[in-house]
């Protein structure tokens, strides 16, 4: 295997430390690091020996200019913890580790700022957080936050350092003369988006890295309309961050308003009203994935009249180490294992899985032949959309999804006679889908990566109201003697069987750019025997190949890692036997994947 960088080795060692004596988890960590399968067949001792070998990397001497930058950082670092970390690296002469921490400054964008914990400008730490908060304070003072309110509401999740970061965000804002309103304890991300409009603040800040690995943390910013910021707000904040002088000179104040439970209480009451009266005979299993969602989910379900879901006890309370999962994301293989085991044990009707900050929702349902299966993000999306539309009225209703999500939503919208829009990826766009449709109201939006917005209570994805709405759907189906799979079949027979799949390739960035450029310059006339009827480029980094029969390929390089993502869709209009149709669609998707691999010429 290729020689790992120092940072890759650090991550591998950290992952293996968390894995403990779990051989499969150690294998998974090595596999992620690129170790060949042939080296992973030994026992636990063999695997540990391999990790030790990989950890014996050559240390690069510290460049004098880099050492000077590091010492300047130390002089301005307000946190003894990261001072000790960087000092130790300098004393050890670990050039790779120091260079990585000073490789660049973490960038601020529309998604905020996010990165690995540690010392230096390329890490999340108190110095980075204070500078970011000062940039937000400057932007709020400019008055163009999208709202007429005053002050900033601040929330945090249960990750490592979230408490410290949220405290300093509030102190910097207060020091700048901006009223800082701190939510109590650990809260789901949707609560902050809700609180902006509920309290009438100018903005909101959430300290979270969502479902990133344990070593990460971040800051997310909402405008005064309760939506994620878009340009030019991000560039204005980024410019203000760049203009911040010494971090230790940033004014701080403890004049922070510490809120009580009233905001969360208001959210619970209003979230429970997202669903109407109906059957409540339902036994659900819920996992918070070691995050902050369980207490709010429990309260919302009780207020709506549902029996309290059965929590996965090992994952119900916040734990920044996420000890029972390789990655705290419901989409990841193995993440739902404990949930499915509990569901099988108690005979549950559905598994509802939030990610650690509870803005996403994963779902698993019983299989017809026994056992359980996780639904795809698109399956959850079309089920929720049809249920929301069937339960609501009004010609002003609008539904939306990202362009990489299943196009069945457009057919469902047409059948219900409502507005429909597709957007670029990200909820910052989905929640703005109706901006060009005067008089419309967004009643449902989704993206295939398990993000769902039900109604206008939260102008961002909300895994809690999505979980409640899905529970309402399952309870109604159960009362009718039907299952979720029955409903999926009914939707397919009404609107066509839409099968979707994501396929990703890890390759050097240069190879990815070259491959995409080739396809842009000379688009194929067919993919896997399906004629290309239209080529669309809705953004510089997105290419869409529309194929005959409503099949589709979306090609999109990852913005954060050397990966090329493709989103595949095939549509079958004439459905005979349901199981045979599903099998045929799966085979068609695999054929399409192979065709895309040939077009990209990057290997399989």
Biggest beta-sheet profile:
6 strands, mixed
Based on secondary structure, the structural category is alpha/beta
**Unreliable residue runs:** none
Give the total of domains: 4
| Name given to the CATH homologous superfamily of the largest domain | Alpha-D-Glucose-1,6-Bisphosphate, subunit A, domain 3
Blueprint (SSEs and pairs):
Layout: H1 6-19, H2 23-32, H3 44-55, H4 64-76, H5 80-92, H6 95-101, E1 113-116, H7 126-141, E2 152-156, H8 162-175, E3 180-182, H9 189-199, E4 203-207, E5 216-222, H10 233-242, E6 257-258, H11 262-272, E7 284-287, H12 294-303, E8 310-311, H13 337-346, E9 350-354, E10 361-366, E11 372-374, H14 377-390, E12 397-402, H15 408-416, E13 419-423, H16 427-430, E14 441-447, E15 451-454, H17 463-479, H18 484-495, E16 497-506, H19 509-521, E17 526-527, E18 530-539, E19 542-547, E20 552-557, E21 563-572, H20 578-600
Parallel strand pairs: 2-3, 2-4, 3-6, 7-8, 7-9, 12-13, 12-14
Antiparallel strand pairs: 1-5, 4-5, 9-10, 10-11, 14-15, 16-21, 17-18, 18-19, 19-20, 20-21
Helix pairs in contact: 1-2, 1-3, 2-3, 7-8, 7-10, 9-11, 11-12, 12-17, 14-15, 14-17
List keywords for this structure.
single chain, alpha/beta, Alpha-D-Glucose-1,6-Bisphosphate, Chain A, domain 3, 4 domains, 6-stranded antiparallel beta sheet, 20 helices, globular
Structural notes for this entry:
The protein is an alpha/beta fold and about 600 residues long. It has four domains: about 5-55, no CATH class; about 105-260, Alpha-D-Glucose-1,6-Bisphosphate, Chain A, domain 3, CATH 3.40.120; about 280-495, Alpha-D-Glucose-1,6-Bisphosphate, Chain A, domain 3 (3-Layer(aba) Sandwich), CATH 3.40.120; about 495-600, Alpha-D-phosphohexomutase, C-terminal domain (TATA-Binding Protein), CATH 3.30.310. About 40% of the residues lie in helices and about 20% in strands. The strands form four sheets. It has a six-stranded mixed β-sheet with strand order 1-5-4-2-3-6, with helices on both faces. Strand 12, helix 15 (about 410-415) and strand 13 (about 420-425) form a beta-alpha-beta unit. The longest helix is centred in the C-terminal third of the chain and has 23 residues, at about 580-600. The mean pLDDT is about 90.
């Amino acid at each position: 295997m290729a020689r790992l960088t120092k940072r890759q080795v650090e991550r591998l060692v950290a992952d293996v430390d968390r894995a403990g004596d779990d051989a499969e988890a150690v294998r998974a960590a090595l596999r992620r690091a690129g170790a060949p399968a042939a080296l992973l067949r030994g026992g636990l001792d063999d695997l540990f020996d391999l990790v030790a070998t990989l950890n014996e990397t050559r240390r690069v001497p510290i460049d004098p200019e880099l050492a000077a930058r590091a010492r300047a950082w130390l002089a301005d670092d307000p946190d003894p913890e990261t001072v000790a970390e960087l000092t130790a690296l300098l004393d050890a002469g670990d050039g790779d580790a120091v260079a990585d921490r000073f490789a660049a400054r973490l960038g601020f964008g529309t998604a905020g700022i996010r990165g690995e914990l540690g010392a230096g400008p390329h890490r999340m730490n108190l110095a980075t957080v204070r500078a970011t908060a000062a940039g937000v304070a400057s932007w709020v003072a400019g008055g163009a936050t999208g709202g007429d309110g005053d002050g900033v509401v601040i929330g945090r999740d249960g990750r490592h350092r979230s408490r410290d970061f949220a405290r300093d965000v509030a102190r910097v804002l207060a020091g700048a003369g901006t009223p800082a309103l701190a939510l109590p304890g650990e809260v789901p991300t949707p609560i902050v988006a809700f609180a902006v409009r509920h309290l009438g603040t100018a903005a909101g800040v959430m300290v979270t890295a969502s479902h990133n690995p344990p070593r990460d943390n971040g800051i997310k910013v909402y405008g005064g309309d309760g939506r994620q910021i878009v340009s030019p707000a991000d560039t204005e904040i980024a410019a203000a961050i760049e203009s911040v002088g010494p971090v230790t000179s940033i004014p701080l104040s403890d004049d922070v308003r510490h809120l009580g439970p009233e905001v969360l209480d208001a959210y619970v009451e209003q979230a429970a009203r997202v669903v109407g009266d109906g059957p409540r005979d339902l036994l659900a299993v819920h996992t918070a994935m070691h995050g902050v969602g369980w207490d709010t989910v429990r309260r919302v379900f009780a207020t709506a009249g549902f029996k309290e879901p059965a929590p996965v006890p090992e994952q119900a309370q916040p734990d920044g180490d996420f000890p029972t999962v390789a990655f705290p994301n419901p989409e990841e293989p193995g993440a739902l294992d404990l949930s499915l085991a509990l569901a099988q044990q108690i005979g549950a009707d559905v598994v509802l899985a939030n990610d650690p900050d509870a803005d996403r929702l994963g779902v698993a349902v019983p299989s017809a032949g026994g056992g359980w299966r996780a639904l795809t993000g698109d399956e959850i999306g079309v089920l929720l959309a049809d249920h929301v539309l069937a339960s609501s009225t009004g010609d002003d209703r609008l539904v939306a999804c990202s362009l990489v999500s299943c196009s069945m939503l457009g057919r469902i919208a047409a059948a219900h006679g409502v507005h429909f829009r597709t957007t670029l990826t990200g909820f910052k766009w989905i929640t703005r889908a109706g901006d060009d449709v005067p008089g419309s109201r967004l009643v449902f939006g989704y993206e295939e990566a398990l993000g769902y917005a039900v109604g206008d209570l939260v102008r961002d994805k909300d895994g809690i109201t999505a979980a409640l709405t899905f529970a309402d759907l399952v309870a109604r189906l159960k009362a009718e003697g039907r299952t979720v799979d029955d409903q999926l079949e009914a939707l397919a027979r009404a609107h066509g069987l839409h099968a979707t799949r994501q396929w990703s390739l890890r390759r050097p960035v240069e190879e990815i750019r070259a491959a995409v450029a080739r396809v842009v310059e000379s688009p194929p006339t067919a993919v896997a025997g399906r004629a290309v009827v239209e080529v669309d480029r809705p953004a510089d980094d997105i290419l869409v190949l529309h194929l005959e029969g409503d099949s589709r390929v979306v090609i999109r390089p990852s913005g954060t890692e050397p990966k090329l993502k493709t989103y595949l869709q095939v549509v079958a209009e004439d459905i005979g036997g349901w199981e045979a149709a599903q099998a045929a669609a799966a085979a068609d998707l695999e054929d399409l994947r192979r065709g895309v691999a040939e077009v990209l010429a990057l290997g399989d």
